[in-house]
Amino acid sequence: MPWLKIDDGFTEHPKFNSCRDYDLSVAVMVQLMCYSARNLTDGVIPARILHRHNSAVVSDLIEAGFLEMASTEGTYRIHDYLDYNPSREEALLLKEKRRLAGSSGGKRSGDMRYPWWNEMVDLFGACVRCGTKNSPLTRDHIIPRYQGGTHGPDNIQPLCRPCNSSKGPDTTDYRLAFAVENGLLIPQEWLTPNSKQMLEQMLEQTGSKRPSRIQPRTRTRSLTQTRKETSSCRDAQMRNIPENVLGYWIGKMDREPNEAEARSLRNLCKRFKSDIVALAIGQAVTQGEAPTNFALITTIAKRESE
C-alpha cells in the first residue's frame, strides 16, 4: 500500500475559505485522498464514496475546485492528485521492483537503515524492558521520532511488541540496566554521551565490574528472522495468492490468513484480477466489514468487473 503524499500547507489552502465548514471540509478531503491512495484510483472518487459524506460539504469542495468532474457520470477526480502522488501504474511497478529485490536476496530499506540490528539482538537476546525471550524483538526508538529521535543505534533498543506498544512517551534506555544486570558490554557507538555517563554511574552504584568484551546472550529471533524461518510452511498455504492481494489482506487483518481463508483468497483470484480483489477488500473494510467477509468481497469484485 503506497503512502499518501500531501503538501504541509494543504490545510491552509485558500480554497478552503469558500467552504462553509472548514474543519469538516479538510477532514473529508483527507479521507478522499486516503481512499484514492489506498485503492490506487489515480485520484478518481466514485459517486458511492462521495455519497457517504455530507452533501453540503461535498458541494463546497466541488465549487472550491478541490474536486473536478471525471469522465464517468457522477464520478469526480481530486484536483492535481497525480502532481503529488504516484499513479496506479507507478505504484504497482515500484512494489514489483521491491518484491523482486527481496526475492533475489536484495536488501530492503529497513535492513539498510538498521545494519547493526541483528548484532544488537544477538547481544541482548531478550526484551531489555521485561526480559522475555519468548517474543520476537522489535526496534523501539528510545526518544520517539516525533520528539526528535534518530534511527541510529544510540537511539534504538530491542523490545518485545507488548513493551514497545505500552511504553508510550517513556524515554528510558532500558539497555543500560539490562547490560549491568547481565554483565554485557554495550559498544560505545550504541550509546549517547548521556547514556555513557548513566552507565558509569550504574556500574559504580552496583559495584559491578566492567565487562572486558561483548558477551552475547542466547539469540532471540527478530521479527524478520521468525518470518524467514516459517516461510517454507506458509509458502505451501499462500501459493497462488498474488502478492498485492495477500499483502493487502495481511495489512488489514494484522495476521496471515488461515488455511480456509487462504483457499477463499485463491478462489477469488482465480475468478477476478488481483487488482479487483484488492480493491474489493479495501471497499469491504471501508464499509466496516472485516476482510474475512468473502461473500461481500465477491459481490464487490463482481460489480467492479462489470
Structural class: mainly alpha
| Count of alpha and pi helical runs | 16
Through-space gap between termini: 24 Å
Which oligomeric state applies?
single chain
Order of helices and strands: HEHHEEHHHHEEHHHHHHHHH
For the largest beta-sheet, the strand count, sense and barrel status come to: 3 strands, antiparallel
Shape: globular
- Estimate percent helicity: 40-55%
The share of residues in extended strands comes to 5-15%
Neighbour order of strands in the largest sheet: 1-3-2
| Whole-number tally of structural domains | 3
Number of DSSP E strands = 5
* Overall pLDDT confidence: 81
Low-confidence stretches: 103-112, 212-224, 226-233
Q: What is the name of the CATH class of the largest domain?
A: Mainly Alpha
Description:
There is one protein chain. The chain has 306 residues and is mainly alpha-helical. It has 3 domains: 10-88, Arc Repressor Mutant, subunit A (Orthogonal Bundle), CATH 1.10.10; 111-206, Orthogonal Bundle (DNA Binding (I), subunit A), CATH 1.10.30; 230-305, no CATH class. It is built from 16 helices and 5 strands. A 3-stranded antiparallel sheet has the order 1-3-2. The longest helix has 18 residues, at 22-39. It starts with 21 loop residues before the first helix and ends with a helix.
